């Protein structure tokens, strides 16, 4: 059973920075894709960024140039560095790992961590 545990959320002023971490425990293949999603009150969950096993990345337009996703495969950890935070970045941020073995795929989620950007 794979478990994802996020940390690093909190309250920050506009323009500030936070670094989210997601540690995965359990069996994970080396080919997985890791991602960060967020969901603000009254809004649908949206993809913030994802990163492949080779390090290739994709970002939502709203966070390009401000957020950086990275991973440390040796530590089974995915990071989201968030800079120049805006009030509209306020949301619950959740870590996701999509993994597969042959034709069987797995979708793992963390419990989420609250990020609040406010003065």
Structure report:
With 119 residues, this protein is mostly beta strands. It is 0% helix and 55% strand. The protein contains no helices and eleven strands. The strands form two sheets. Strands 2, 4, 5, 6, 9, 10 and 11 form a seven-stranded mixed beta sheet that branches. A four-stranded antiparallel beta sheet has the order 1-3-8-7, with no helix packed on it. Strand 5 and strand 6 (57-59) form a beta hairpin. The protein starts with a strand and ends with a strand. 29% of the residues are buried. The model has no long low-confidence stretch (mean pLDDT 95).
Q: Helical stretch count? A: 0
SSE succession: EEEEEEEEEEE
Sketch the major β-sheet. 7 strands, mixed
Q: Please identify the structural class as seen in this structure.
A: mainly beta
Report the end-to-end length measured between terminal Cα atoms.
40 Å
- Quaternary state of this entry equals single chain
Q: What value does the average pLDDT take?
A: 95
Low-confidence stretches: none
Net shape: elongated
Helix-strand layout with pairing:
Elements: E1 3-7, E2 10-12, E3 18-25, E4 33-39, E5 46-51, E6 57-59, E7 67-72, E8 77-82, E9 91-101, E10 104-109, E11 113-117
Parallel strand pairs: 2-11
Antiparallel strand pairs: 1-3, 3-8, 4-5, 4-9, 5-6, 7-8, 9-10, 9-11
Brief summary:
It is built from no helices and 11 strands. With 119 residues, the protein is mainly β. The strands form 2 sheets. Strands 2, 4, 5, 6, 9, 10 and 11 form a 7-stranded mixed sheet that branches. A 4-stranded antiparallel sheet has the order 1-3-8-7, with no helix packed on it.
């Amino acid at each position: 059973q794979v478990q994802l545990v996020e940390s690093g959320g909190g309250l920050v002023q506009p323009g500030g920075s936070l670094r989210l971490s997601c540690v995965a425990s359990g069996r994970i293949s080396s080919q997985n894709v890791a991602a960060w999603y967020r969901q603000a009150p009254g809004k649908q969950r949206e993809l913030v960024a994802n990163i492949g096993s080779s390090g290739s990345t994709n970002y939502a337009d709203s966070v390009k140039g401000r957020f950086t996703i990275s991973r440390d495969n040796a530590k089974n950890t995915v990071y989201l560095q968030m800079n120049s935070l805006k009030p509209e970045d306020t949301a619950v941020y959740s870590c996701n790992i999509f993994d597969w073995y042959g034709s069987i795929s797995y979708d793992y989620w963390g419990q989420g961590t609250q990020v609040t950007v406010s003065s």
